[in-house]
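Shift notes (night). Ran ISL3 family transposase while the centrifuge was going.
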Amino acid sequence: MNANLLALFWEGFTIESFHPFDNQSLLIRLQPAQGYTPCCSGCRQRTLAIHDTHFRRVRDRDLFDYRVWLEVPVKRVRCVTCGPRLEQIRWLPGRQRLTAGMIHWVESLVRLMPVQHVAQLLGLHWHTVKTIDHQRLKREVQEPERHRLRRLIMDEFALFKGHRYATVVIDADTQQVLWVGEGRSRAAVRPFFEWLGPEACSRIDAVAMDMNTAMDLEVQHHCPQARVVYDLFHVVAKFGREVIDRVRVDQANQLRHDKPARKVVKRSRWLLLRNKANLKDNQALELEELLQANQPLMTVYLLKDQLKELWYAPSEEEARQRWKDWFSLALSSGLAPLQQFARRLKGYLEGIVASARYRLNTSVLEGMNNKIKVIKRMAYGYRDNDYFFLKIKAAFPGKVR
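Came back to this:
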């Protein structure tokens, strides 16, 4: 091993000695290079006045099979401008116990591997790796261009078990994650609009969301000119839970004396909820037979498909007409769950009709939520929401306009 060659890694220092101190570690003692003049870390002036010197043991990048430790003499200089200050060592930032090279190596690895795996690979504490990555994300995650925002998408995702949620907001045009915050109440999403500011809020034309009243009210308060657009997927999913499931259970209960027929109805949930285009041939045939045999299920199934057509109307006028037709059919169906759902949905009509003008939906965010789950699993859960939310922003920097 050539000591002079190794010394090139540590500017201003040469190797005094080196030796293994266990089977995996190598200790290298450094000394100031001949003619080296310390530099004040405050004003960057060079000075020969030394206040004191202490030795710091720091970790550097691994060398072959060895974990490299350096013993570095670090001076405090007596600067005429700043007073006693640590000398500046370019490859040893601040009071770190890791060299700049080691930090860069950790940053490169943590882009590819979970924090826990990087910590185990390098023999570092989980919090050390997490702190390095957190600082990297703070440097690299770009501040969104608020003045260019026009259309937003808001949705929620499960943060932890136990019904704890977070809200995420993205730019509908670039798919950049703009903001992530814990909770889904009005108070929880209000910091986003405060961050956005009155000027940027006044430029927002439309916001897509599910039927979350808290988000709706907060958008109306901060962006009164913006149209709220309710997402097709969430409305249809709600129709499936509150109407199709309820009618299916009611029909199964009425067939309690006909066990074979009751069994068919009870097991039909996924046939009724899936899109017909996604069914296999035998499933489509089974669905057809079920609907022909049960008029109430036929009614709610057909009205589910007709409800979707509201989101594909070519104009707001056509969307309103489709709504009137659908609402009339729902009320005349004689099915209590369907009638109740239709009356509640009427209060959200403006957000449904707006979809004819603003073709927005949260399906993009649904795909993002799957990736967010992967990020969360890779970390075996995050103990720091600020760090977790930065990871999400870094994963979705958005497309170039």
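The chain has a mean pLDDT of 89. The chain has four domains: 1-96, 98-140, 146-231+360-395, 232-356.
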